[in-house]
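S1.2 Input.
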Amino acid sequence: MVDVERLFKESGAMLEGHFLLTSGRHSPVYWEKFRLLEQPSRLEQLCHLMVEHFSAHKIELVAGPTLGGAIIAFEVARQLGVRAAFAERGSSGRTFRRGLGVNKGERVLVVDDVLTTGGSVAEVIAAVKQLGGQVIGVGVLVDRSEGQTNLGIPLYSCHRAQAISYPADSCPLCQSGIPLVKLGGDKAAS
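S1.3 Output.
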């Protein structure tokens, strides 16, 4: 059995401290998914969990949003022996470009790295349906939604994580004097 949390911690993808999230909230945990995505052998193990879960569903295409979801879509598709595609952000949601697409009636598994609000996944689902594809399920590495996201499609996650966060003006980590770190570009918050 794969110890998913251990894989995230060992790869440096699950960090503990005091972090500024994109939303402006503060959190004691940060999921730097690209630290895992840069390690193919670890990613292969997690994607295999998705493959095992969806193997009986006759998937014909695996699709994910750019950027992290595209890497996961490729690996899951490789293991299933089917095509992979990625949906890029466009002016009105996600769209398939570069000759990639979904065939009418094609059975599609949508995958992504971390699910928090489900926005990226919902956009990929909409893009698949717009082209006539049939979304069979959604697979993610980490589900941080705490059950707050209902995509209307079966969801499988390799790991579920509590999404602890605080408003910046009442953050106990700030009150304790723990330095705030901003990742995903700049190393430190101002």
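S1.4 Remarks. The chain has six helices and nine strands.
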